[in-house]
Amino acid sequence: MTKIIYTTVDEAPQLAAASLLPIIKRFLSEAGLEVETRDISLAGRIIAAFPDHLTDAQRQSDALAELGELVKTADANVIKLPNISASVPQLTAAIAELQGQGYALPDYPEAPQTDDEKAVRAKYDAIKGSAVNPVLREGNSDRRAPAAVKAFAKANPHRMGKWVSDSKTRVATMGEDDFRSNEASVTLADAATLRIEHVAGDTVTVMKDGLDMPAGTIVDSTFMSVKALKAFYNKTIEDVAKEGTLYSLHMKATMMKVSDPIIFGHCVRQYLAPVFAKHGDLFDANGITPNGGLGTLLDKIADLPNGAEIAAEIDAVMADRPPLYMVNSDKGITNLHVPSDVIIDASMPAVIRAGGKGWGPDGEEADTTCVIPDSSYAGVYAESIDYFKETGALDPATAGTVQNVGLMAQKAEEYGSHPTTFEVPAAGEMRVMNGDTVLMSHAVEAGDIWRMASTRKAPIMNWIELAIERQAAENCRAIFWLDETRAHDAELLNYVRPALAEKGLTDTFEVMAPTPATRASCEEIREGRTTIAITGNVLRDYLTDLFPILEVGTSAKMLSVVKLMQGGGLFETGAGGSAPKHVQQLMEENHLRWDSLGEFCALGESLRFAGGAKAKVMGDAVDTATVKLLAEGKSPGRKVGQDDNRASHAHFALYWAEALANQTDDAELATAFEPVAKALADGIDAILAEIKAGAGQPVDLGGYYHGDADKTAAVMRPSATLNAIIG
Ligand SMILES: NC(=O)C1=CN([C@@H]2O[C@H](COP(=O)(O)OP(=O)(O)OC[C@H]3O[C@@H](n4cnc5c(N)ncnc54)[C@H](OP(=O)(O)O)[C@@H]3O)[C@@H](O)[C@H]2O)C=CC1
Ligand SMILES: O=C(O)CCC(=O)C(=O)O
Ligand SMILES: [Mg+2]
């Protein structure tokens, strides 16, 4: 029987855990099962990186490194909650909060000069962005809506915006001089140690060396032309002004932590082009960059002697530009304020679910032009939008479902590329070398964004097998979303086709480029059918928000299993993130609308995976409880005054205890849970009243990134009745 590890994370899922985990621990103790926590929160990772700056009492071990080893063993049984992938503004805010709590951490060096500063910066950069998931994901991804969730969504369809055929909403993408169009790809026949070089005239600079690749690895390299990017932004700004839509930029600055903040920064720069033309040198001299977003830019400008004047010029330019899609129009937070505020996997589905609408500066809904610079995957959103314009919104009461099998293990594809991504220092050539042989090379200009990505053979073969297994289980249409005209995909297909042929399954699977696959999948679910999208890593991420958000309203209710390649299990909770908006609501009015359904799904799976008869009984009872929770409508409501996350946990505890008391597979457990079930049933009204007593009041958690455990427990466990039963 394996021990279950429950991760300590950030924001809403961590607040939910403060309420749910004590219940889980209490219940599992009856079955002799252990649950341990490991802190992979942003604050925890910062603390672990700087032991020398901290007191003994403050120090924390590097739990991420420990888990990174654990997931390479058959013993791993990890329940992984979503964590913050920090943009620079979030990272600096977390550091400041910890410093305020007495942690003598170094500041984040914006422009490191000394060796010391460079070392500090390197440590912080390793914490930044998506630094957790790629380490833990030693397996491929199986994400789908559980049958009970689908059935519930059909019976209780969520609200969908209306799509009209003359909607002006569209996707704008480069289509040339971008990552998609410049891609080169090779499959290594033998193991190799690769080197990345920049060549300018006679000068060869080694950008990265010692990149060990096993035989069979697919290696890609590509770049985005900064000149083309700027021209593209200028054109979109002009077009959007004519179209009368909102301007919205959709990036993944968290997961693509090197390339996408730069691409984001160029958008801020072009949007404010007259300001940068006038003050660019001053900004450079003061280390002011737009890559952390307009918010940070404005803060830094405020510190300049002529700050007020420049701020007024920025306002004037913005008034002259097409209106921006807003993150929070009440607070004046625009799309360009913080690179991690608008994250494409969640933001594009939200626009599509709303019938192609975003929020404008006036607080009103409007059509929006969705700017997605690189064209590799933009077609998925463009095609979805076209499809819904033609056919009207999807009806969640009758829609089928698109499941996903995603290639993800061992930092596959673009999502593993940040250590090998560079902003090109000078015009010349970027090349990938294998000894003296040039594997791939690109002519580049200064500022171009060049990257290398790799995908190992073992994960690819494992992914194909997982696809075969899932298709056999569902017996439905299954499509490999691969584009034979794209360099990387063509190499992947050299693995996929023979593997399918060898098993006589060539006709069981289809291969389609992402754009037609999007249409085919939309048509399938429109007819109420199930289909499986077998995709690379980026589309795994995008599609497991897109389809769930359209079909069941949210990706929070997804079953999200990572079958680790060495035999262990990683159970992710849902397919979404850490919902910062939910924390804000809790702090302002003591209502947490986070839905822990993803945690319930993961817990059931993890328990069955743990092995042993008792664990199976516990896990099956979790599923029974989850189905009942949905059927009884006990999921959290969005508004203060409704039952919230804590109330849903109380119901979950009640139904879990009932399921355990009523099952007949394990008499001992039934006996143990009978009084618990009775106490919860008798106490539920009091429990709900105790939880609701604090509704509407602001609460103090003692911190945002590094809250106080006691204060958080007081907020998240307000029911004395429930606490007495849980112990
Ligand atoms: N696996 C991981 O570790 C992941 C981490 N992230 C990280 O999370 C942060 C926020 O990312 P963002 O793109 O804003 O996406 P989120 O998924 O956190 O939020 C988008 C919206 O989805 C809804 N939502 C998400 N989860 C739930 C839930 N359990 N219950 C109810 N509603 C939910 C909320 O909608 P509403 O406001 O309408 O209630 C929320 O505002 C970033 O730091 C990002 O990097 C993101 C994805 C995965
Ligand atoms: O790791 C991250 O930053 C986000 C991951 C994500 O969005 C996903 O797995 O769906
Ligand atoms: Mg995602």
UniProtKB/TrEMBL annotation:
Binding sites annotated in the UniProt record for NADP(+): K80, L81, P82, N83, I84, S85, N133, G577, S578, H582, R593, W594, D595, R638
InterPro entries the UniProt entry points to: Isocitrate_DH_NADP_mono
Cofactor(s) the protein needs: Mg(2+); Mn(2+)
Binding, Mg(2+): D345, D541, D545
Site (Critical for catalysis): K252, Y415
SUPFAM superfamilies for this protein: Isocitrate/Isopropylmalate dehydrogenase-like (SSF53659)
Enzyme Commission numbers on file: 1.1.1.42
Residues that hold D-threo-isocitrate according to the record: R143, R540
Biological-process GO terms, alphabetical: glyoxylate cycle; tricarboxylic acid cycle
Note accompanying the cofactor annotation: Binds 1 Mg(2+) or Mn(2+) ion per subunit.
Pfam families listed in its UniProt record: IDH
Family membership: Belongs to the monomeric-type IDH family.
NCBIfam families named in the record: monomer_idh
Protein name (record): Isocitrate dehydrogenase [NADP]
Organism whose genome encodes this protein: Pseudooctadecabacter jejudonensis
Organism ancestry: Bacteria, Pseudomonadati, Pseudomonadota, Alphaproteobacteria, Rhodobacterales
